[in-house]
Amino acid sequence: xxxLCAMAVGLASPxxxxxxxxxxxxxxxxxxxxxxxxxSQCGQEVCGRLAGLRYTTDMPRDKRGEPECNxxxxxxxxxxxxxxxxxxxxxxDPDTGHVYHAKLWVSQSGDLKLRGFVAVPLFGETETxxxxxxxxxxxxxxx
Length: 143
Fold this sequence. Notes:
Elements: H1 14-18, E1 26-29, E2 35-42, E3 45-53, E4 72-79, E5 87-92, E6 99-106, E7 112-117, E8 124-131
Antiparallel strand pairs: 1-2, 1-8, 2-3, 3-4, 4-5, 5-6, 6-7, 7-8
């Protein structure tokens, strides 16, 4: 799975308040609809784990052979001091183990934007994720 990452936070938290009301905390479906990330507050930072996957045989595994279920892939997100409502952190590609710089923000339409890049945001890729309200079965299996 070539998914990158996501996150979850609470409305009453200082993290969400700093996000200018844009709620990044919660569950988000990836652009290919094959994964759901849960974003939450982790201390003073925001982080995300792969909470749901669409698979038909065995659970997908990361580069080290570990199951991708609940794999932390979004780490160390803190408010961007230059762009209100944006968050800076890192995303891990489970297939390669590479860690990339990343930015997160909620668009005006309410979608989550994740931009992963090496060194400079100009040389990156942005994915659009949508809020997920469905169920997630045992072993992170999506219906």
